[in-house]
Amino acid sequence: MLDLHGLTKTYKTGDRAVNDVSLSVPKGQIVGLIGPSGAGKSSLIRCINRLVEPTAGRITLAGTELTGLGPRALRRQRRRIGMIFQEYALVERLTVMENVLSGRLGYVSFWQSFTRRFPPADIARAYALLDRVGLLDHADKRADALSGGQRQRVGIARALAQDPELLLVDEPTASLDPKTSRQIMRLLTEICAERDLPAIVNIHDVALARQFLPRIVGLRAGQVVFDGTPADLTDTALTRIYGDEDWDAMRRAEAEDEAETREALAARDAMVLA
Ligand SMILES: Nc1ncnc2c1ncn2[C@@H]1O[C@H](COP(=O)(O)OP(=O)(O)OP(=O)(O)O)[C@@H](O)[C@H]1O
């Protein structure tokens, strides 16, 4: 269970990116965080593992308060939080397996990590994770030889190798085509359910959030202005989050965009097969 209480971040510039956010995410629940650009989604996610230092408020993960920990204790607690990034953040010249094992670096000694000698149990677990994300046959490939969707699967396996108690996911599908995006969202939701993991997913694609995430939190100017199910996310609720828009026109434009992407991908596949 993750608990945020009165979480606030004011940057030195005076920007209050996160403003008194209180939120609980129970085990096994995956929450989508939506909101306009600049609403504070990234700042909120980064406050939770203290990549961004909160100005006020409390963060508690399974009973341990993360705010106020010193550097050593914070390092230990960060192992409990798996991060998955938009740009994957893989080490390109390392193999898929080495990238997944790098999720264990917080657990092995300096010497073991320096020589990259991981315990056999870690290696066995990394193979099992690669199998789970559908990349077992790619274990020895270099990360830079993979497609975007495959890279994100490595990012997911690496986060899971940490044996996390919470997943923080920052725009996981922003660099992916619609079909691959759906596959990645499906994988994330299945994994949270299987492992009883709480997760927060920063996601700009409202249609995708609606399709896959049972709970959606809307941020506007650093504050929670919506917290509900996809069915609760009516046009009125969307207006509260994003301001006035013609939602029908936006849905039509989104459908057109998706159809265009599908056509472009079909044309590309046809060229590859020809
Ligand atoms: N390092 C920083 N220093 C000062 N202000 C910042 C910093 N990072 C973010 N901000 C400001 O905080 C506010 C929230 O930004 P943040 O990136 O968290 O929003 P976001 O919802 O993730 O936006 P986007 O969807 O565009 O990524 C913005 O006004 C931004 O300019």
Automatic annotation (TrEMBL):
<keyword id="KW-0813">Transport</keyword>
<feature type="domain" description="ABC transporter">
    <location>
        <begin position="2"/>
        <end position="246"/>
    </location>
</feature>
<keyword id="KW-0547">Nucleotide-binding</keyword>
<dbReference type="GO" id="GO:0005524">
    <property type="term" value="F:ATP binding"/>
</dbReference>
<keyword id="KW-1278">Translocase</keyword>
<protein>
    <submittedName>
        <fullName>Phosphonate ABC transporter ATP-binding protein</fullName>
    </submittedName>
</protein>
<dbReference type="InterPro" id="IPR017871">
    <property type="entry name" value="ABC_transporter-like_CS"/>
</dbReference>
<dbReference type="InterPro" id="IPR012693">
    <property type="entry name" value="ABC_transpr_PhnC"/>
</dbReference>
<dbReference type="GO" id="GO:0016020">
    <property type="term" value="C:membrane"/>
</dbReference>
<dbReference type="InterPro" id="IPR027417">
    <property type="entry name" value="P-loop_NTPase"/>
</dbReference>
<keyword id="KW-0067">ATP-binding</keyword>
<dbReference type="InterPro" id="IPR003439">
    <property type="entry name" value="ABC_transporter-like_ATP-bd"/>
</dbReference>
<dbReference type="InterPro" id="IPR050086">
    <property type="entry name" value="MetN_ABC_transporter-like"/>
</dbReference>
<dbReference type="Pfam" id="PF00005">
    <property type="entry name" value="ABC_tran"/>
</dbReference>
<keyword id="KW-0614">Plasmid</keyword>
<dbReference type="GO" id="GO:0016887">
    <property type="term" value="F:ATP hydrolysis activity"/>
</dbReference>
<dbReference type="GO" id="GO:0015416">
    <property type="term" value="F:ABC-type phosphonate transporter activity"/>
</dbReference>
<keyword id="KW-0472">Membrane</keyword>
<keyword id="KW-1003">Cell membrane</keyword>
<dbReference type="InterPro" id="IPR003593">
    <property type="entry name" value="AAA+_ATPase"/>
</dbReference>
